[in-house]
């Protein structure tokens, strides 16, 4: 989502000259360090690696194997074909009375070796199976015999009860695509948007690149792919996110919305209590690896590494680059209300506080009438400042207010109790949704701690939302957590008839701890400047959200088309007004599906070109083609927010109890950021953002074009002949 903005804005010299010196380091050293970081991550998860390293077996399977060998020995059978006897002979002779002990030790050692060999065989077999991509080429709704056989073997070798990280050691390495294929696909993708003259010039640069630089750069990427687990992911995190010096607000954060049409309770403290409790229940499941690994199309497991940093994580600013700080545990949340910061404990005697007890603590904060200290109210605007500026100010802040700063940065997550209501209103549905989106994306510029992995925003009328920092994980990870949170706090925890959390308060709990900031005078000016810049950036963002209810996923399925490709192609139609007939539309949808499947199998274009560009910078090798690729400004950045746990929601009986998705900032000063989410089978929610300073963009105008394009496309199909176009105002109010 928001990564589109950072990827478009990437430059190798993002920092000062010192940063460029780092980029000039020998590429072999950087590849070595990438592999070292990869292995360190494995070693830091020793217990997880033990549990997942024996998967799909289990520690109990060793005991079963050992017992079987002992039983065979008792029956005077030798399943080791003499190996146990040789092992016994190599053991020290402790005397006649220990002869049986030597036999047991020999059996245990043989069982361990055999068990390890079996596990290794299972790992290799599963990794080879997961390297198969033929299932992606299957026609919609069909499956060939080879794919059925492959799927059966994957299920057999995957075991019965996989944990979250069970597949990590069995996932194949990220393949490095052929550089010729990548260049060809890139030229195909830009051909429709370039003039003949510009395309010929770009194609000439591409041919020169293939002749002169491509083979050398590709060799280094191949080398890295064998040494590190992924040839591009650490560089993407480093250069697209952590080295970016831009404000995190709008540029590197995105938002997630509450239920669109319903609010389970209007009591702000109660909604916060249930939501925080549900989030911490999710963390508990995460710590115990009880979350099922995500399966692509229900078949192929995806990497689960990003789940590790959901909680207890903060992006720490640096002068040239940021770094991600992750704690193993945190027993409190940081809360912001009316310019004041609080520390609220989440556990009592090692047990998670009940929702009613958490509600009590939040209500105490809401009832606290003490004023904010001078400049404390706007302190969080520093986290929205350029990263170099915030890094320098943070040094002084850490010296003067270390305890308060640690309470915020060391929290499980950040909670903002807003003083204003939000969400859909009957009086002005369009404007209210737009304001809701803007409040989550930018707020007032000083009421979110943008460095935290995510901030839970609770509005005064009980409406919820998330503001998520992007560098630690992609949207599906936070989306998975958010689905669990909404379903749990509403359907499982629930509320009493008067809107409060169920259960009883706990008067014995201490009051929430007010955090005190000793702010030196030299920081005051920095806060004022950061606030001014944050308000300017916030005021420049134009957000528009609308539910499209003419049709949804079920209609698209009846047209025998991919729902995601259908929407993506319609968005192009809305932006460029092309592809006016059914044949061209089907062709465009098929092309999008082919590109999507190529990206899913590691054969995408952008990451490969990005990695080639990074290597060229390390080598100080000029490539006009790669410079051209990374200087382009893409005016339409799109993303679908998937619904991953539909079983948690009863969309047929309670269609309103589905999250309405979220959005992100525009990828270009003169472009749009568009995300969408299928709410059940019959509604699609769109989130559009652009900058008010641009004379070429208007979020609401694009929203109308999207609705028109969807209806234009739908009426091309026999199933959509009954649809009639309606105006935006009527759609929003309906």
Automatic annotation (TrEMBL):
<dbReference type="InterPro" id="IPR000542">
    <property type="entry name" value="Carn_acyl_trans"/>
</dbReference>
<dbReference type="Pfam" id="PF16484">
    <property type="entry name" value="CPT_N"/>
</dbReference>
<keyword id="KW-0443">Lipid metabolism</keyword>
<feature type="domain" description="Carnitine O-palmitoyltransferase N-terminal">
    <location>
        <begin position="1"/>
        <end position="47"/>
    </location>
</feature>
<feature type="transmembrane region" description="Helical">
    <location>
        <begin position="104"/>
        <end position="126"/>
    </location>
</feature>
<keyword id="KW-0808">Transferase</keyword>
<dbReference type="Pfam" id="PF00755">
    <property type="entry name" value="Carn_acyltransf"/>
</dbReference>
<dbReference type="InterPro" id="IPR023213">
    <property type="entry name" value="CAT-like_dom_sf"/>
</dbReference>
<dbReference type="InterPro" id="IPR039551">
    <property type="entry name" value="Cho/carn_acyl_trans"/>
</dbReference>
<keyword id="KW-1133">Transmembrane helix</keyword>
<protein>
    <submittedName>
        <fullName>Palmitoyl thioesterase CPT1C isoform X2</fullName>
    </submittedName>
</protein>
<keyword id="KW-0012">Acyltransferase</keyword>
<keyword id="KW-0276">Fatty acid metabolism</keyword>
<dbReference type="InterPro" id="IPR032476">
    <property type="entry name" value="CPT_N"/>
</dbReference>
<keyword id="KW-0812">Transmembrane</keyword>
<dbReference type="InterPro" id="IPR042231">
    <property type="entry name" value="Cho/carn_acyl_trans_2"/>
</dbReference>
<keyword id="KW-0472">Membrane</keyword>
<comment type="similarity">
    <text>Belongs to the carnitine/choline acetyltransferase family.</text>
</comment>
<feature type="domain" description="Choline/carnitine acyltransferase">
    <location>
        <begin position="175"/>
        <end position="579"/>
    </location>
</feature>
């Amino acid at each position: 989502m928001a990564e589109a903005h950072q990827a478009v804005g990437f430059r190798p010299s993002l920092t000062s000259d010192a940063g460029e010196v780092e980029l000039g380091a020998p590429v072999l050293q950087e590849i070595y360090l990438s592999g070292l970081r990869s292995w360190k991550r494995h070693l830091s998860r020793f217990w997880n690696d033990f549990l997942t390293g024996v998967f799909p077996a289990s520690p109990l399977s060793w005991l079963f194997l050992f017992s079987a060998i002992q039983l065979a020995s008792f029956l005077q059978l030798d399943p080791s074909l003499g190996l146990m006897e040789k092992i016994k002979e190599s053991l020290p002779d402790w005397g006649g009375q220990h002869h049986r002990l030597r036999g047991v030790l020999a059996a245990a050692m043989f069982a361990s070796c055999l068990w390890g060999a079996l596990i290794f065989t299972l790992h290799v077999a599963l990794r080879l199976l997961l390297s198969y991509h033929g299932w992606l080429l299957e026609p919609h709704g069909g499956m060939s015999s080879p794919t059925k056989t492959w799927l059966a073997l994957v299920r057999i070798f995957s075991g019965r009860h996989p944990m979250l990280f069970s597949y990590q050691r069995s996932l194949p390495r990220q393949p490095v695509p052929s550089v010729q294929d990548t260049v060809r696909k890139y030229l195909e993708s830009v051909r429709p948007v370039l003039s003949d003259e510009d395309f010929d010039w770009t194609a000439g640069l591409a041919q020169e690149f293939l002749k002169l630089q491509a083979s050398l750069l590709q060799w280094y990427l191949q080398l890295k792919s064998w040494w590190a687990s992924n040839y591009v992911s650490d560089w993407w995190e480093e250069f697209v996110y952590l080295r970016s010096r831009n404000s995190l607000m709008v540029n590197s954060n995105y938002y997630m919305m509450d239920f669109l049409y319903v609010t389970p309770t209007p009591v702000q403290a109660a909604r916060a209590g249930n939501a925080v409790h549900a989030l911490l229940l999710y963390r508990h499941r995460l710590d115990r690896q009880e979350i099922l690994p995500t399966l692509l199309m229900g078949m192929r497991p995806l990497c689960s590494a990003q789940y590790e940093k959901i909680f207890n994580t903060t992006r720490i600013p640096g002068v040239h680059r940021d770094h991600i700080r992750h704690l193993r545990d945190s027993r409190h949340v940081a809360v912001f209300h009316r310019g004041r910061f609080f520390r609220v404990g989440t556990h009592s005697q090692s047990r998670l506080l009940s929702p009613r007890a958490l509600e009590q603590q939040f209500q105490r904060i809401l009832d606290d009438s003490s004023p904010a200290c001078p400049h404390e109210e706007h302190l969080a605007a520093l986290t929205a400042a350029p990263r170099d500026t915030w890094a320098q100010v943070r040094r002084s802040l850490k010296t003067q207010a270390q305890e308060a700063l640690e309470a915020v940065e060391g929290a499980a997550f950040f909670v903002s109790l807003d003083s204003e209501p939000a969400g859909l209103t009957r009086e002005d549905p369009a404007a209210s949704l737009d304001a809701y989106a803007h409040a989550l994306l930018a707020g007032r510029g000083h009421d979110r701690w943008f460095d935290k992995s995510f901030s839970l925003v609770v509005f005064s009328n009980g409406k919820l939302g998330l503001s998520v920092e992007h560098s630690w994980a992609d949207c599906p990870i936070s989306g998975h957590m958010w689905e669990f949170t909404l379903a749990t706090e509403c359907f499982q925890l629930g509320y009493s008839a008067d809107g409060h959390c169920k259960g009883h308060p706990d008067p014995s709990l201490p009051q929430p701890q007010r955090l005190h900031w000793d702010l030196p005078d030299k920081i005051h000016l920095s806060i004022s400047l950061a606030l001014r810049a944050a308000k300017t950036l916030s005021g420049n963002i134009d957000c528009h959200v609308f539910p499209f209810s003419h049709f949804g996923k079920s209609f698209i399925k009846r047209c025998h088309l991919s729902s995601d490709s259908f929407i993506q192609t319609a968005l192009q139609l809305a932006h460029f007004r092309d592809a006016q007939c059914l044949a061209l539309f089907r062709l465009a949808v098929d092309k999008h599906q082919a590109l999507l499947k190529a990206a899913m199998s590691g054969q995408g274009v952008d990451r490969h070109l990005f990695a080639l560009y990074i290597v060229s910078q390390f080598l100080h090798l000029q490539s006009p083609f790669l410079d051209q690729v990374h200087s382009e400004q893409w005016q339409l950045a799109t993303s679908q927010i998937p619904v991953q746990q539909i079983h948690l929601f009863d969309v047929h009986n309670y269609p309103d109890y589905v999250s309405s998705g979220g959005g992100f900032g525009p990828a270009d000063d003169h472009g749009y950021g568009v995300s969408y989410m299928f709410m059940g089978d019959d509604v699609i929610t769109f989130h559009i953002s652009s900058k008010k300073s641009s004379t070429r963009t208007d979020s609401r105008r694009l929203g109308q074009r999207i609705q028109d394009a969807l209806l234009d496309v739908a009426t091309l199909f026999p199933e959509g002949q009954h649809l009639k176009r309606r105006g935006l105002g009527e759609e929003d109010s309906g």
